Amino acid sequence: MTVDVLMIGTGEYTTGFVPGGTGAADKRAGVVALTLMDLRRRGRVGRLAMAGRCGTKFPDIRRHLQTHIGDVYREMDLSCDTFPADDVENDPHAWKAALNTMRLGDVVTVFTPDDTHAAIAMAAVQHGCHVLVAKPLVKSLEEHHRLALAAREHGVLVAVEVHKRRDPMYADARDRIRSLGEFSLFQSYMSQPCSQLDTFRSWAGTGSDISWYLNSHHVDFHVWAAGNSARPLRIRASAADGRARTRGIDTEDSITLLVDWENVPSGNRATAVYTASWIAPPADVHSQQRFFWQAHNGEIVMDQAHRGYTMATDPEGLVSLNPLFMKYTPDAAGFFSGQQTYGYRSIAAFIEAADAIRRGDRNPEDFDDTLATVHTTRPVTAILEAGRRSLDAGGATVTIVYDSHGAVTGLS
Question: Which of 195, 248, 317, 408 could form a disulfide with 378 if both were Cys (CB 3.0 to 4.6 A apart)?
Answer without folding.
Answer: 408
